[in-house]
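If it is no trouble, might I ask you for a protein's amino acid sequence along with its backbone structure tokens?
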Amino acid sequence: MVVGIVFANSGVYADPQMAALLAQTAEANGVESLWTVEHVTIPKDYESQYPYSSSGRAPGAETSDIPDPLIWLAYVAAVTTRIKLATGILILPQRNPLVVAKEIATLDKLSAGRAIIGVGSGWLEEEFSALDVSFHDRGERLDDYISALRTIWRDGAAGASHHSSFANFDACISLPQPAGPTVPIVIGGHTKRAARRAGELGDGFFPGKGTPDELGELVDIVHESARRVGRNPDTIELTTGLPRDSDATNRLVDLGFTRFTVPPPAWDLDSLPNAMERLGQRIDDLG
């Protein structure tokens, strides 16, 4: 079992000193990974429903800094050596796959293979409109771009080609390539469609919420979907938020979850070192 920190790049952690301290103290206290969030823009007075809050509003989204996740990860990569650098999640349908493949491969190369790319379809329709990207086919676009990324990372040295209704390129050299053969792609989302996508296409699955019973149903869908397309379901890594009680945590471990995430343990410079030490103690207790 390993523990990662989510919302790592939000709010006060847009400050360079806070970002560096978070990354370094997390690494020193046994945190396995840092997970960044993304929004290019939050249009005022949006009507889309944020799926992780009963209010339908993303807490603090319109007033908090949300740095670009890949640039933030590149910054903290330079002041750390071991901690994994993850997006949780990157709204992949909003990005050009050739551009984002180059950005991710660069991050992975410079960090000696520490990148993990969590991707999702997004929920904020007004953001898609502002970017002039179709919202209603974002799921199909996400699936297609996942395939495109893997093609670029596999064939980029010789010339990668991909032809679909969403992306068309032929014999495109893209260097550098990732440090390893590829970069793990984790599917974010707590819907049945996200679970099927993880089983069919993902190296991992990261549902952002759910009770053990709800997550158990989703894990079954992940495994069934993987077997249906000839994949080994045991190779799909499972990540979710760390429950407050040990019974729920044990149930999730029994379901196959091996990574749990928590928010930063403090939000100011003075409190962070001691709070991170306490988190490290909790990680040790979890085993």
The CA atoms of residues 105 and 178 lie 4 Å apart.
